[in-house]
Design a protein that fits this description.
heterodimer, A: mainly alpha, Cytochrome Bc1 Complex, Chain C, extended, B: 311 residues, two-stranded parallel ribbon, 12 helices
């Protein structure tokens, strides 16, 4: 793919030439152009002919698009650099929010109703099965894309200065993503979810000092005795009990999973996502593709760019 | 025993296991894709190292370049069209996947009927697999926290200024191989083992073996101190402590020697805290597969037995 000529097809110069033609074309029209009407202009506030200014405004004057810079490194749009996994993860989160809200209309987080609602979704609700399938597969896909995104960030060394903190936000988001998927696992209230969550939360029994089967509970009890308070750790007051709202996976666990899944974790995840995206911009946009640094230049390099 | 194709098909075609197959293929593909880019960059680096005059004028990327070209492009349309296309492909792919494969729905939850095997969701099966080798407080609590803490520590202990923002292998051999070992072996491979290899009773079934819940496995678990004929609890506890903590110490010392010999630059750039954290994380990361081998090959369950906790 060797460059053939000196004219950059994406350059400002070529664009201006083209824009002149478009402008002439718009002016010659007899019927008012829809994109020139006050209605259109009231929404988008900039003209549509493709001048460099309008291209920038299209991004800068849009609340959703201004997440991104108006211009970016010309090599950063190459798929071979960033694989788009982070963006796809976010897009899957949006799909999951959409299908999840739709599913909430048909779901009651109670032992009496939850499983029946699954059958209802499967057999009676129009497109209910498609909705549930999409929600589940998007959740699994989101886990995969999160891992791949992390792998890409690692392989390109993008966690290095000045992006160290954003990598940490990413690790938290990885955890939130997996916890979102895990809490959703219980909601159908079937054998699969029930035993998966039983197995998963049983580990909390063994949390040091906080679980009733974990190491260190004798020490907690002994400390309590010295202080004259009852500090016995058992299955009815340990960290697992707090997670499940009971000593077994039952109606309280279902409600807790539901609230974590539908309210707490999405809100938490959104907050970290906002920081994650904002920091990408603040830390100098996408990390590359950066010009390669030679081994011999390593000593001259500053820690921060 | 005949190769049980039916069993293999049942496990691989389970709707909830299909994502693992997709994940395995995707990780494999992107690994190749990333390393191919790495090789491309490495070739350029080698070329520029050999030719300092060229290094001064070269644009330093393996991509097409012309001095007359703008260094930046407009987000609209050059990035947004890629994003739009990606969103379109993901949406269509997801809808097709959702039409083709129904989400699993098993019988209603029944606390009196334990499924065998009872498995966590597939992305946590690596941790569940670790339960075979460690007590729950290590496998389920300490190790996940170490993984998260270790990941978070990476940017602060990796002091190599090279390879920031481009794929490379030759400039970051140690960092990339450590990460890949952790991700591919200790996370992805263990999840695959937990899904496809572990059957009823969490017994080890090779692909093609029938998942027989009544299968008998005659394995006698031993503790390390029993091999040395130690019985007194105090002696056993002190012996285990010496082996475990001493092993970590020796591991760190060995790493230290290797670092000084092969990575002198890294060694010099790190301060003491960074260096000690790096050594700790590497030794603990290496200790996990070591314990796995001890259990799988030598049936050794614990190396450190005390009245309060076992390791």
């Amino acid at each position: 793919m060797a460059p053939r000529n000196d004219i950059d097809p994406t350059s400002t110069k070529a664009l201006l030439e083209k824009a002149k033609e478009t402008q002439a074309d718009i002016k010659s029209k007899w019927i008012p152009n829809f994109f020139e009407t006050p209605f259109w202009r009231s929404i988008f506030r900039h003209k549509i002919d493709e001048t460099p200014r309008n291209r920038s405004l299209a991004v800068l004057s849009n609340v959703f698009l201004h997440l991104q810079p108006a211009k970016l490194n010309r090599d950063a749009v190459r798929y071979c650099f960033c694989w788009g996994m982070g963006g796809i993860t976010f897009y899957l989160f949006c799909i999951l929010t959409f299908t999840g809200v739709a599913l909430m209309f048909y779901y009651h987080p109670t032992k009496a109703d939850a499983f029946r609602d699954m059958l209802f979704l499967k057999n009676d609700v129009p497109f209910g099965n498609l909705l549930r399938n999409m929600h589940r597969w998007a959740a699994h896909a989101m886990i995969i894309t999160t891992w791949l995104h992390q792998m890409r960030v690692f392989m390109t060394g993008s966690y290095k200065a000045p992006r160290e903190f954003n990598w940490n936000i990413g690790v938290i988001l990885l955890l939130v993503t997996m916890m979102l998927s895990f809490t959703g696992y219980l909601l159908p209230d079937d054998q699969l979810g029930f035993w998966a969550v039983t197995v998963g939360t049983n580990m909390a029994r063994a949390t040091p000092f906080l679980g009733h089967e974990g190491p260190g509970i004798e020490l907690v009890k002994w400390t309590g005795e010295q202080l004259g308070v009852d500090s016995t750790v058992n299955g009815y007051n340990d960290v697992r009990f707090a997670l499940l709202g009971g000593s077994i996976v039952d109606s309280n666990a279902l409600l807790r999973a539901y609230i974590w899944h539908c309210v707490a974790l999405p809100v938490l995840g959104s907050i970290f996502m906002i920081v994650h995206f904002w920091r990408i911009r603040k830390d100098g946009s996408l990390s590359g593709p950066a010009p390669v640094m030679l081994d011999s230049e390593a000593d001259k390099a500053k820690g921060r760019r | 025993m005949a190769f049980d194709w039916v069993q293999l098909w049942q496990e691989t075609s389970k709707p909830d296991n299909v994502p693992i197959l997709i994940m395995t293929a995707a990780v494999g593909y992107y690994l190749w894709y990333g390393f191919r880019e790495g090789v491309r960059h490495d070739r350029l680096i080698t070329q520029l190292e050999a030719d300092p005059a060229l290094a001064k004028t070269h644009h330093r990327k393996p991509y097409p370049f012309h001095p007359a070209w703008d260094k930046v492009v407009h987000t609209w349309p050059y990035l947004l069209r890629v994003e739009f296309l990606a969103a379109l492909i993901v949406t269509v792919g997801l809808i097709l996947w959702a039409i083709w494969l129904p989400a699993p729905l098993e019988p209603p939850a029944n606390p009196t009927l334990t499924t065998n095997p009872a498995k966590a969701p597939w992305y946590f099966l690596g941790l569940q697999e670790l339960l075979v080798y460690f007590d729950p407080w290590i496998a389920g609590v300490i190790l996940p926290h170490l993984v998260l803490g270790g990941l978070m520590a990476i940017p602060y202990i990796d002091v190599n200024p090279l390879g920031n923002g481009y794929y490379t292998w030759r400039q970051r051999k140690f960092a990339i191989s450590t990460y890949m070992f952790g991700f591919l072996v200790l996370w992805v491979l263990l999840a695959i083992v937990g899904t496809f290899i572990r059957g009823p009773g969490w017994m080890w079934f090779w692909p093609g073996m029938t998942w027989d819940a009544h299968r008998q496995v005659h394995e006698v678990n031993r503790h390390l101190h029993e091999l040395f004929g130690l019985t007194d609890p105090w002696v056993v506890g002190i012996f285990g402590g010496l082996v475990t903590l001493g092993g970590i110490g020796v591991g760190m010392a060995v790493c230290d020697v290797i670092f000084r010999k092969f990575k002198p630059k890294t060694f010099l750039r790190q301060n003491l805290v960074q260096y000690l954290i790096t050594l700790h994380l590497i030794v603990l990361m290496a200790a996990v597969p070591l314990k796995i081998v001890l259990k799988l090959v030598f049936n050794i369950k614990y190396i450190w037995v005390t009245p309060w906790f076992n390791v």
